[in-house]
Amino acid sequence: MTPEPTASLPVTRFTPSSAPESPSPVQTELTPAITAAPGAGIQAPGWLWPLLGALGLLVVGGGAGWLLGRRRRAAEADAAPDPQPVATSAPSPGPPPLARPAPAASPPRAPAAQVAAPPGPLVTELRPLRAAIRDGMVVLDFELFIQNRGPESADNIRATLTLFGANPQQDAQIEAFQAAARMAPGSEPFSIAAGNVHMLNGQVSLPADQMQAVMMQGKQMFVPIVPVALRWYAGLSIKTLRDAFMIGTAPAQGGDRLGPLWVERAGEGFGRLAAKRYATKVPSA
Was domain 13-34+115-277 assigned CATH 3.40.50.1820? Predict the structure, then answer.
């Protein structure tokens, strides 16, 4: 089912369905990617390179000092006269050696704080399935799970989503999208009884030349952000939900941080994707 998009707000195409009891993970399969549209991008911070240079100089300087010291000690050893034997008495037993205390283990790194879901009866969870760059577009397929934790049914729910890349203005862009989503047609309406879960299959896309890229170590990377807006009827009142998710490669085992999507790897696949809730620092109206 395809709602009509507006000129100022991209609207996702949805295929509403009931949530599976135990959804299985979906393997990422990407079509061959085209070259991302060239753009200025955001260069790595300028302070990073002097820092790396200083570290390199410290390593080289330390190595040179160690080498010079070694040569000096070797020369002093060659110039020293051979020691003469000296008669000594039998050594007396000394105190027993003290046991060295075991070094204290460094505390494990605290995991990154999880962003709490927005308050309200409806709670969303975004599961990214696959991402690709094809035909000049960045495309993200996803499942959106919506749980009704409230005491009453949520009726005539409409969902609106969009896609853009992480950038210095992302918080303001999310807030602007959420404000405009109140008047957007959104998805086909659906209802969720109290305690139930509903799932939407969907896709969001963005022209590749509008996806903000960051240059790191001479390679382009990007971090997709998917804002989510819901509105529905609860009794005689209209309720809304504002949410947003940041997309990246799934954390390594034991880790908790998403990895970036490298443009050059789009053809072979970005690997397993994951999403984390993102909260703006701009107060909502």
Answer: no
- Distance (Å, whole) CA 183 – CA 153: 22
**Burial letters 110-132, b for 16+ CB under 10 A, else e:** eeeeeeebbebbbbbbbbbbbbb
Q: CA angle, 19 as apex, 275 and 130 as ends, to 5°?
A: 35
Name the residue ranges covered by the structural domains of the chain: 13-34+115-277
Q: How far, in Å, are 25, 86, 92, 214, 272 from residue 89 at the CA level?
A: 78, 10, 9, 74, 73
pTM: 0.64
Highest mean pLDDT among 20-34, 189-203, 206-220: 189-203
The pLDDT of 32-56, averaged and rounded, is 34
- Cα separation, 60 vs 66, whole angstroms: 10
Q: How confident is the model at residue 7 (pLDDT cuts 50, 70, 90)?
A: very low
The answer on pLDDT for 107 being more than 60 is no
* DSSP calls for 37-82: PP---BPPPTTHHHHHHHHHHHHHHHHHHHHHHHHHHHHHHHHSPP
